[in-house]
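Researcher: Please generate the 3D structure of the following complex. Treat every line as part of one assembly.
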Amino acid sequence: MSEPLLEVRNLKKYFPVKTGFAKTTQVKAVDDVSFTVNAGETVSIVGESGCGKSTTGRAIMQLDKPTAGQIIFNGVDLMTLSKSDLRKTRGDIQMIFQDPFASLNPRQTVYHMLNEVMAVQGIGKNGQRREKIKELLATVGLLEHQIDLLPHQFSGGQRQRIGIARALAANPKLIVCDEAVSALDVSIQAQVLNLLKDLQKELNLTYLFISHDLGVVRHISDKIIVMYLGKVMEISESEALFNRPRHPYTKALLSAIPTIDFDNPKEKLILQGDVPTPLDPPTGCPFHTRCPFAIEACKQTVPAVEPQKDDPTHGVACIRTEEIA
Amino acid sequence: MSTLKKRLKNLQIVMGGSIVFVLVIMAIFAPLVAPLDPLAIDVPGRLSPPSAYHWLGTDALGRDVFSRLIFGTRISLMIGVLASFFGAVVGVTIGIISGYYGKWVDAVVMRFCDILLAFPGILLALGIITILGAGTFNTIIAVSIFAVPIFARIARGQAMQVKKAEYIDAIKTVGASDLRILTRHILPNILSPITVQMTLYVASAIVTAASLSFLGLGTQQPTPEWGTMLADGREFLLQAPHLVLYPGLSILITVLGINLLGDGLRDALRPRGR
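Model: Done. Output below.
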């Protein structure tokens, strides 16, 4: 249960952006991010738009080549693999995408889509995968006779189920869910989340869940990583994070969740201003421009993610944690 | 779209489709449709005006204009369809490769296309014919080479759009090869605009081919071809206007029919409700 399946070490992804005539600036979408995902766990990355959470996911999937760092899956660094070895390993890591309307090829029937995944991964024999695909459809709660339908004949929630079936078709160990439910209605979100939970138990899957929705994340995660401007702010067991957030940014995020407890009104911690542009990030702690607890020293040093004395599994990137906790 | 507009669009497809259908039938069954031998010379009966026997009159050698027009349909449609097809095959291939890989591949391919497109179509075709020599087959080659950059540009633009789709990422995460992505995922999803362009290009290919023949560089005598017939009739424009009028009308109707069909197809194939 607790051996690491995925280890991300010092992951960096910079994008060059033209900022003027013959002048390019590096946008540090992901800057020095490290974390571990243990087998069987659900780890979530949360943060607002542009914090680098999706870029992290895409880097792990090897869809965008990271600028630096290591992505160690099952003891092997994915970035050192040859093309053909990477192709084999890819089946072990699958992805569920955000937009169920864009993530399915509009010209492929469900059968062709899943059959192709299996063919590329060398699972089963050509022409003999139909039964297996029907089983997969049943697993994700679709009907057998829907196997020959095209994506536009399904609803959003059903399409997301097809997306899940496609990910499962490769027999993955790890599934990266990039905002997998944020495009769905709330009632459908719950259904899909429950399906993902059931599948995890049944197939012994590990999830890396990328989301901006703390409500969604709370229910499914074992561990939560909070990102801001390409850096990890806080990393912790889910319960510990929700019960006692330590980083000022996490505190602000959690206090933004609406509650209906009128007797004990929460003290709201409302952030001022916007996220700074990643083209010109602040010096020192990236959060100091909006942090209510910021002091002069915050502008000078980039805080590292330090384990807490009373809880070594809880990492916080803030020089004032002790004082403000 | 309002109902009236829809009706008009449907009418457009039906009209264009019918014209093209009739032309295709005429081309296939030319020997059965044509009342007379298109090559039979009848010098005493030369330049005769339309009559009950010679429906559209005879040309300078006394050959039946109507029969020659019908046989000419074969040549024109064949050149149009083949040139458009070859142009599309080559153009789409380099276009999707260019659009998918981008970077320097794209830069090289697109500058090459720019150079080809910088020539006026007929001039380029003339140049190619000069190298290859006159004739029907070489006309097809010349006209299809001119089509290559047109299709390449469309395919490139479409491929650049489609390659960003999440379903392409999805199949990449399984480990699919580039060849599979290009042929199984990108190509099927850009086929509609390509089909429309192929249809429309048949029309311009027919005009270009007829122009080449008019200049004596395309299909050679005595094969009946509309452009050649126009060129022959030019000398007798005043005595026998039917010699230019009817081949001209044939080209006009054909191009009109194909364009109506192509435009109609464009709207019919437009992706609905994304």
